[in-house]
Structure prediction request, 546 residues.
Amino acid sequence: MRRRRTVSWRVKLPLMLVLFASAPLVAYGYWTLDFMADTFEKVTLETVSGLAKAKSGAIDQFTSDRRRDVERIGQLIAPRLGALLTISAKPKPDKPPPQKLPRLQDAEALQPGKAPKPPPVLPKVEPPKNEPPKNESPKKESPKEETPDVPQTPQAPPEPSGEEKTVQQAEDELRQTLGLILWDQQEFEELLVIDATGKVLASTFKGHEQRSAADLTYFQSGLRATFVQPVFMSPITEKLTMMIATPIRDDKSQVIGVLAARLNLSRFFLVINDLTGLGATGESVVGKLVENKVVLMAPTRHDAQAALKRTVEVGSPDARPIQDAARGQGGQGVVTDYRGVCVFAAWQHIPALEWGMVTKVDCDEAMGPVHDARRQMLLVAVALGALALLAALLAASAFVRPLRTLQDATDRISRGDVDVQIDIPPGDEMGDLADSFERMVAAIKFFRERSEEDDEEVIPEDTSGG
Amino acid sequence: MATLYKQILAIARDYMGPAAEDYIRRRIRIVQHGGEPESISIDKLDRLAAGIDMTAKGYMSRAKASSFRDEILALKNSSD
Prediction:
């Protein structure tokens, strides 16, 4: 009875050979790819972390510098404001009764997800007598035709003529001082001097004068200490802007007004949106915690309209870094961003603004070389595997063929046919085995022949005669 | 030093395996007309080789039988 064979050596051998040939290759490939992935992850995180630190540092420095500038300007104009207030305080018989001032429509659009209000129609102003030098206006863009946002002419205030200054003269001096400062300081778009009651006494944006800023946050906070109003969409300029307000104090340190400065954010956004070292998908995102949402405060690379419109719910699984950064925590890691895309990110808090900043690069881009290497390695592995399989099949065939020959010969002998010829070349173990087998066959033939001869000898001769 | 008979037997074992002794004794007896196989001398090797050449073909391939014969004849040269 023939036993049923489970798996032939013709199959087992190639499998073993391919396994032994492929297993180390696959293991080495995985180890290499793993090492590469770790290295790329580490390098990318170090890069984005360095960029995040540099950018947050630059923004922090920018904000601190502007705070200091505004405080210095506040000190600079304090004497002029004091003079104006002194003149204004003198009773005048023909002075009209105080009227309710129109409200200054500013800094009211900081509502997450809300579009800014349309710009108000501002009162017409007379064009300045002396035009400022062209291309030197700190206001680079004129948002609306009817918005007279041309800063005051940067000319030196006129010397007092020896007569008592009028309120108008004092206001002109203050306005011109502001104009000169604005002209000199390219970092601001507008400077406003507001008295302690909230009335805008002078502005480089004349349309804002004689308006009430009493209910504006930056005025109220600016009365107490230097205050930075986060980025908001200005309804006046229709641009993202920031306000820094600082108290103006007299000689006795009494608060006599507030200096509010509207920042030119072009350099600020330039720092945030600088894509150096961030590849094709990297970007920096800044956000501020407002109630239970983080509001993105600047346009992003992937969403130019993100500023003040795009929000991230606190506690949502996506965009954890901006949530953490806005809450004062820093870190780095592989996370999901506000688009729901895997990113390598580093996040920082910006103390001066109470903002969070996330600098990130898409995982796909960062790990691109690893993916390429994986594809190449897979191709090489497949090619080598095919070669190994071919070699293994040839080896198995060379190994199994003489075994089959011997098996067939043995099978024939076991069935009584000793006249077998084995054609296995000598020189290796199979040859030796065949040699031994042939020896055994020769012995079998000899013994069989002798046995037959012996049988013939013992057969009695027929004596019957017939 | 091994006797000639033992040398012949050692060669025969490579070709006939367990049947070597019986086969060789039979062949030598034929060559010596019934004489004791152990007493075989070199001058009988030619006839022994011829007998092997004729009979071994029945037990093994022709090539092997020739090789068997040649090895037996080679004993003659080694003994000279």
